[in-house]
Specification:
The protein has 577 residues and is α/β, with parallel strands linked by helices. It contains 24 helices and 16 strands. The two termini are 43 Å apart. The structure holds phosphoenolpyruvate (PEP) and magnesium ion.
């Protein structure tokens, strides 16, 4: 029986595929019954996942045997390989699949729990800790299983895409999709500018959040249509609807390929104003996409993603390699590396342990620069890595969540300290690196003085700026309807920051989601903005708006619009710009 659910469209496009129910934690896997005759196939699926993980580990073992690789890594990989042969993990899981006629993921997790319990009973502390290794091996197997759904008889669909259905996904969960082939995802919770949504846009896969009870209503392997343009999820569609959406999907693909013609076009308006279109990235691997669309540089590298889904923190060398890779890949084009913006919805396991506390109101808590200033060693490590990478390209430092002049001073002092440490070590680095601040706290936007005096560039983080200006948690779907980028107060603050910065000849960009929304491009151009940073997938759509715009004409209209208080009228005028 077909039905539709409505949520927040957070990443455009249309995906047609089959539901895979997952939970926030990888281990809360779906449990479903399989038919007697499907048991051998389920076991085969489990075995092929084991084989894939074995291959991964053998490859890792070879890498870790290379000269200079840490010997602990090699030992660890061998322990993991051993567990892959452990009959208690492997054979017993197959027995469970057979006896209970259940899916492989669920059987595996049951068996993992039995083994972990056995290890917990061991007196020897070293051996007891080996339970972590079982967990990690199981995690690897689950990831492969997740990427390789059951081959079951499909209901008339040629699509093999996988649609992830979850109650909630953290940004750390979502970033892992970068290595899986996923058609789209939908969640019950989440706001349109939550970091989970932002990662979806970065993956360029259709996504809907805030569906309330999709996880409850959808069954494993239900056929789904994710309409990421309108925020509609259609469950078990009939043939006619399916055909209509296939048509729409083809149209969108055609449009995308037409947009590719703009890659080499100059990014200038009709009245010859040069507009810089830069890219936001989460991981060095995103560079491929950035180059494909011809971005002018990286306007925001959200480095916190390097810290997620791992038990230990990346050290200076690892960070340096990641930053250098990006700097080199971008040639002489600017690479804006934002210092760690951890906290609020972006959690890193290794850092939670570090901090050993959960803030009562994390969006207002020890987040971003506040956290870094409270953990100077962690911050200095990152600063040294960035300073060193700056030797290999046009790297700049961007500091998130600054509000107080004292925070700017402390940050600058720590950057100087990092330079001094590198000098003592005789390391190569760029001592003249440009330092910029994110304007994303209303207090910063309203009192720009210290920023203009002490920094070299600004970047408006509209996602947080709107969250704090309107007091709307950007991750909470129950107030998502109040999260309004076109609120007159929001528009005035953004326009004022752009104007004040430009008067002081201070470069200013927007790197929040507003910059990647083609429907806001003309508005921002009319405010005088010349630097935009966004997900690579949005860049050509924004460029299309830029090349058709006339800034002179827009700025007159926008200054009139900024004086209006009636939100409906503002909306109407923005649409007509
Ligand atoms: C912002 O707040 O607008 C921003 C770009 O940073 P993030 O989305 O990572 O908080
Ligand atoms: Mg922010």
């Amino acid at each position: 029986m077909a039905f539709a659910l409505f949520g927040l469209a957070v990443s455009p496009g249309i995906a047609i595929g089959y539901a895979r129910l997952v939970s926030h934690a990888l281990f809360e896997v779906a449990h479903y019954q399989i038919r007697e005759q499907d048991v051998p196939r389920e076991i085969e699926r489990f075995e092929s996942a084991l084989a894939a993980v074995r291959e991964e580990l053998v490859h890792l073992a070879q890498e870790s045997a290379a000269p200079g690789a840490p010997s602990e890594l090699s030992a660890l990989v061998h322990v993991h390989l051993m567990f892959l042969d452990d009959p208690l993990l492997v054979e017993q899981t197959k027995v469970l699949i057979k006896e209970r006629r259940c899916n492989a993921e669920w059987a595996l997790v049951q068996q993992m729990e039995v083994l972990v319990a056995q290890f917990e009973d061991i007196d020897d502390a070293y051996l007891r800790e080996r339970k972590q290794d079982i967990v990690q091996v199981v995690e690897r197997i689950l990831r492969v299983l997740l990427g390789k759904p059951r081959r079951i008889a499909r209901k008339g669909g040629e699509e093999g895409e996988l649609i992830i259905v979850a109650h909630d996904l953290s940004p750390a969960d979502t970033i892992q999709f970068k290595n899986l082939k996923i058609g789209g995802f939908v969640t019950d919770l989440g706001g349109a500018t939550s970091h989970t949504a932002i990662v979806a846009r970065s993956l360029a896969i259709p996504a809907i959040v805030g569906l309330h009870n999709a996880r409850q209503l959808i069954r494993e392997d239900d056929l789904l249509i994710v309409d990421g343009v309108r925020g509609v999820l259609i469950v078990d569609p009939d043939a006619r609807v399916l055909e209509e959406y296939r048509l729409r999907r083809r149209e969108l693909e055609l449009e995308r390929s037409r947009l590719m013609r703009l890659v080499s076009a100059r990014s200038v308006t009709l009245d010859d104003v040069e507009i810089e279109l830069m890219a936001n990235i989460e991981l060095p691997q995103d560079i491929e996409q950035v180059k494909k669309v011809g971005a002018a540089g990286i306007g925001l590298f959200r480095t916190e993603y390097l810290f997620m889904n791992r038990d230990t923190l990346p050290d200076e060398e690892e960070q340096f390699e990641a930053y250098r890779q990006v700097a080199k890949a971008m040639g002489g084009r600017p690479v804006t590396i934002r210092t760690l913006d951890i906290g609020a919805d972006k959690e890193a396991q290794a850092l939670i342990r570090h901090a050993e506390r959960q803030a009562p109101n994390p969006a207002l808590g020890l987040r971003a620069i506040r956290y870094c200033l409270a953990e100077p060693q962690l911050f200095l490590t990152q600063l040294r890595a960035i300073l060193r990478a700056a030797h290999y390209g046009e790297v700049r430092i961007l500091v998130p969540m600054l509000a107080h002049a004292a925070e700017i001073e402390q940050t600058l002092a720590l950057i100087e300290e990092a330079k001094a440490q590198l000098k003592r070590r005789r390391c190569r680095f760029n001592p003249h690196i440009a330092i910029g601040g994110m304007i994303e706290i209303p207090a910063a936007a309203l009192a720009l003085g210290p920023f203009l005096k002490r920094l070299q560039f600004l970047s408006l983080g509209t996602n947080d700026l709107i969250q704090y200006l309107l007091a709307i948690d950007r991750t909470d779907e129950s107030v998502a309807h109040l999260y309004d980028p076109l609120h007159p107060a929001v528009l005035r603050v953004i326009a004022q920051v752009i104007q004040t910065a430009q008067k002081a000849e201070m470069p200013v960009a927007v790197c929040g989601e507003m910059a990647g929304e083609p429907k806001f491009t003309r508005l921002l151009l009319g405010m005088g903005l010349t630097e935009f940073s966004m997900h690579p997938a949005q860049l050509l759509k924004v460029k299309q708006q830029v090349v058709m715009a006339d800034v002179g004409e827009l700025s007159a209209k926008v200054s009139r619009l900024l004086r209006i208080d009636d939100p409906d009228r503002v909306r109407e005028l923005v649409e007509r710009l």
